[in-house]
Specification:
Blueprint (H helix, E strand, L loop, with lengths): L8 H5 L18 H8 L10 H14 L3 H28 L13 H6 L2
Length: about 120
């Protein structure tokens, strides 16, 4: 019999609750489409070099996460940075008189595109 642990948010966050293998079981009724929809995910197929996948797996293991969530993080960071870069370039093409300062400009739009 297991001892009862207080169900505080901290206990869930630090892994005291929710990570004991004694209470893990694989669901037999998994609707992958519903699961992906609920998580806002869309499955895709992509071909990557084996060495790249191995690098992601190593980095993911060192960070205590799976390699697919790591790849999602990398892709998300790249997409966000590219969107900001593109917006910044487009803004300066339309407003050539504006100059960005090192710490950002006072214009509200510049604050957004500078992150």
């Amino acid at each position: 019999m297991s001892k009862k642990i207080a169900g505080t948010p901290e206990a869930w966050d630090d892994g005291t609750l929710g990570r004991d293998e004694e209470f893990v079981r694989v669901s037999k009724k998994v609707d992958d489409a519903a699961l992906s929809e609920a998580a806002g995910l869309q499955p895709i197929s992509i071909r990557l070099q084996k060495s790249l996948i191995e690098d992601y797996k190593m980095i993911a293991e060192l960070n205590g996460i799976g390699y697919q969530p790591l790849i999602r993080q990398v892709l998300k960071r790249f997409a966000e940075a590219e969107k900001k870069r593109i917006l910044r370039e487009q803004y300066h093409q339309k407003h050539p008189e504006s100059e960005l300062k090192e710490e950002g400009c006072s214009d509200e739009f510049c604050d957004v595109i500078n992150g």
